[in-house]
Amino acid sequence: MTAHDLPAGRHFALTWGIATPYGGMTTALLERSRMFAEAGTPVDVLTLDPRPVPLGPEFAELAAVGVRVRNLYDGVRAGDIPPSSNARSVPEALRDGVDGVITDEVGGVAVRRVRLGDDGRPVDIDHLRADGSIAVAERRPPGGGRLLVACDRTGAPVRSWRRRYDLYSDWLDSLVRDDEAFIIVDSKTVAPFAADYRRPRVTMVHVIHGSHRGPTPGSVRASRQPVFSRLDDFDAVAFATDAQRRDVRALVGSRPLLTTVAHPVAPVPAAVLPAEADRTSAVVIARLEPIKRVGDAVDAARKLHREAGPAVTLDVYGTGSRADELAARASGDPAIRFHGHTDDPAGALAAASVLLLTSRSEAFGLVLVEAMAAGCLPIAYDIAYGPADLIRDGENGWLVPDGDVDALAEAIRAAARLSPERRAAMRARARATAEEYSADRIRRRWASVLRTAQRRRRLQRRTRPLLREARRAARAVLRRARTVARRARALVRRARALVRRTR
Length: 503
Fold this sequence. Notes:
GO terms for molecular function: glycosyltransferase activity. The protein is an alpha/beta fold and 503 residues long. The protein has helices spanning 24-38, 58-65, 72-78, 164-176, 191-196, 225-228, 242-252, 294-306, 323-329, 345-351, 366-373, 387-390, 405-416, 420-435, 439-502; strands at 10-15, 43-47, 67-71, 101-106, 109-116, 122-128, 134-139, 147-151, 157-161, 181-185, 202-207, 236-239, 258-260, 282-285, 314-317, 336-340, 354-357, 377-381, 398-400.
């Protein structure tokens, strides 16, 4: 074993769920897991979503190299959690056709029945097996709280819990057993539970995928606050850039182990790249949501086309709530084309000359490095943590002032008018930048981070009892000191009384 090897033990990636089409966080999680598995360390990707989506053919390829996706409720259906004597009685099953009861299906199979309350939110849930039997029944008792009961195929109770976190913990315990284990939690939704899950042989690392910045300088956005208040409960917290790590350090102080691990990007062989003459388009690959501001890219392209600028088409790949609005915004401009989701982002990037990234915030901007690997020059708003860390303006891409559509259009114009020699040199520098994020380099970095986090966890396990004993001793000394102080004050009062009598 060398220092570059991943540490021995069970390796897990923990997230809420895998939605399709999946975005940057899931892409990074799966590529990291593939990278570990291809280096000889299998990874189980664990999901807690009660409605897992059917997995596509790419997951068969991941399974072939050692990446297995496992869902909590599928695990309970299969009997992964051992029975317990504390099992409570089985609640009455929910029935189809009853007012307020709906049935959720995945792939045509009923996976759960839900009774909705007056506010439209789930009150009672039955998680079902394929044969219709109840795997887990969730109820809200009249006195408040929650009751979860796991059942066998005959309907008999086998285990019960008062919180979902307890169910999650028992499932992880059944997978980890007594082995040395490493859990990397990617989802901010799951992170509060992960911070609570402490086991003697489990090293827990949280990866922060998004920007933490709140609406005012020095603030943390609301969705991050529950975790940022307790980062020290993780054995390590990883960011994609040094800049974000430094900013968070200034916010939370010295105690948490904060580190930097970027995301790996696969190289694109030069032989598969198209001829320069064929690379004339601009491309956007993003969720069509407000945070991505794809409308700015559309407006910049329309501005160029109105001004009879360079013949640059804009190809937009992605889906989201703004799709119809953006299509209407580009209406009448045949050089702006919407393609929906793509399963081949690398091919789309290799075919384009420039990538436009107009996000409001990024933690890394994985698509920037993917573009660079394909020799596609990025043009991005100068925002924290992504573009500002990766792009050297005018050398391997362009940075433009945040929100400045005119500057964005001018950068597209400048890229189109570069000489072939200058453009080739910039593409070469972009590809060289992407090489810094090779799987081999990032895997070595992860090996170092996991070993450091493991040592920290072991050290804390040894020192915590000593710290507790030291605190108890300090409190005892403080109590004795207070007692002595009280006695001293009493003696002083008596002495003063005697002095007064002798006058």
